[in-house]
Write a structure and sequence with these properties.
The model has no long low-confidence stretch (mean pLDDT about 90). This protein is mostly helical. It has 17 helices and two strands. The chain has one domain (about 5-215, about 235-405). It has a two-stranded antiparallel sheet. The protein has helices spanning about 5-10, 15-40, 45-65, 80-110, 120-145, 155-165, 170-190, 195-210, 215-220, 240-270, 275-290, 300-310, 315-335, 340-355, 360-365, 370-385, 390-405; strands at about 70, 300.
């Protein structure tokens, strides 16, 4: 349960700080545009993404059980956050995030991190691919430069996109595609460099320089605030807590699963071992802190954690530097961020959705392995896209556990007729 930062600082050196400083700044340059894009796609203000990256990112690194975990807002939450905001408003999201923080703290104290092995892998893969599809569909409006409103439901959104196909504009589409091409190019040629912000900056700079008819972040949201707001307790009335409990449970489940998966990926990349109890406690504290400052739900971010490792991050100090760098950028360069082009941020999220779906594993997911696992994955994916993430996860976990019991040949219950 001891935070990793306490054990790593015992052998800390100037060389370690240099490595952590470079890695922290590098991953901050990746996290900055991604945090803005995730917040916008979630239906929240762009500043909430930065607040989450700063507050939650700092707490996850300071209290977490992984040496190199980077925390903040992630694409996995977009669907849930958008749904909560649509139904309960942003204040409802803040309350749900606060409750999720408490649930994660309880899970950490109860050492529930080891229970992740009981969540069937096809279920995780299924709802992750489903979320990726929903994110991609939500970004087509900005990439195509459409102005027509888009409904939240998938089938209705597909119909609205088809009806608005005549609105497709050349310049927004070009900016989105060029941004995606540049990001892909930077990832191949210089994977340890912050190619995301360079690509988004170059295309956004071209929009400003040539006066292209492309919507910017400032056009839609105005100038970003400089600095963090004052902390404030959310609405914790009993009626509100009962109303938002299902959303809080889903947020806590996603945060716990994704953070532990990210920590396990980091372990494979570095050879170290994380402490699951400390990691869940850190996620709980991070979500509490984010909600107090009006931020979004947070968790460990697999892509940003991998970027941190590739850039040379060695200890949680890199994560602290990442959070402080984003804070400095918010204090100094908030007006500059308002010039970022919306199609560029949408292109960034389209690539994020593509990477979330892990196309390199599609063959294994859909063509190989047990037939029952493939069916479970597809059903979870379909329910995520066309029904609801809560339904998808509930169905997937229940069906997966039933399949596991069946494979272990657990004998059926010997029911005794009641004596009435």
């Amino acid at each position: 349960m001891t935070p990793k930062i306490l054990t790593t600082l015992r052998e800390y050196s100037v060389e370690s700080f240099r490595a952590d400083l470079w890695a922290g700044v590098t991953v901050a340059m990746v996290a900055l545009p991604l945090s803005l894009a995730i917040a916008i796609a979630s239906g929240a203000g762009p500043e909430t993404g930065l607040i989450t990256a700063i507050v939650a990112g700092f707490l996850i690194s300071a209290l977490g059980g992984s040496r190199v975990q980077i925390g903040g807002p992630t694409g996995a939450f977009i669907v849930v956050v958008a749904g909560v905001i649509h139904t309960h408003g942003f204040s409802g999201l803040v309350t749900a995030t606060f409750m999720a923080g408490l649930i994660l703290l309880a899970a950490g104290f109860l050492r529930a991190g080891r229970l992740i092995r009981f969540v069937p892998e096809p279920v995780i893969n299924g709802f992750t691919i489903g979320i990726a599809v929903i994110i991609a569909l939500s970004q087509l409006r900005d990439v195509f430069g459409m102005t027509a409103p888009m409904p939240a439901e998938t089938l209705e959104k597909l119909a609205a996109l088809w009806e608005a196909r005549g609105e497709i504009a050349l310049w927004p589409l070009a900016i989105g595609l060029i941004t995606m091409a540049l990001i892909t190019l930077f990832r191949r040629l210089a994977p340890s460099w912050p190619g995301l912000i360079v690509a988004v900056g170059l295309t956004s700079g071209a929009v400003a320089l040539f006066g292209l008819p492309v919507e910017t972040l400032g056009d839609r949201f105005g100038t970003l605030p400089r600095g963090l707001p004052m902390p404030e307790l959310p609405d914790l009335s009993p009626a509100k807590l009962r109303e938002l409990l299902p959303s809080a449970l889903i947020i806590a489940f996603l945060a716990g699963v994704e953070s532990l998966l990210s920590a396990m990926v980091a372990d494979r990349m570095t050879g170290f071992r994380h402490r699951s109890g400390a990691e869940l406690l850190a996620q709980g504290a991070a979500n509490l802190g984010s909600s107090l400052f009006g931020g979004l739900p947070a968790t460990g971010a697999i892509a940003r954690t991998a970027t941190n490792i590739r850039a040379g991050g060695r200890t949680p100090v890199a994560g602290l530097v990442h959070a402080l760098t984003i804070l400095l950028a918010m204090l100094v360069a908030a007006p500059l961020a308002s010039s970022l082009a919306m199609p560029a941020l949408a292109g960034l999220l389209l690539l994020t959705a593509w990477n979330m779906s892990e196309p390199q594993h599609w063959r294994a997911h859909f063509l190989e392995g047990r037939r029952s696992d493939r069916v479970l994955l597809i059903m979870t994916c379909v329910l995520t896209i066309f029904a609801d993430l809560t339904v998808a996860i509930g169905f997937g976990v229940a069906a997966g556990l039933a399949l596991r019991l069946q494979r272990r040949e657990v004998p059926p219950a010997d029911w005794t007729p009641p004596d009435r």
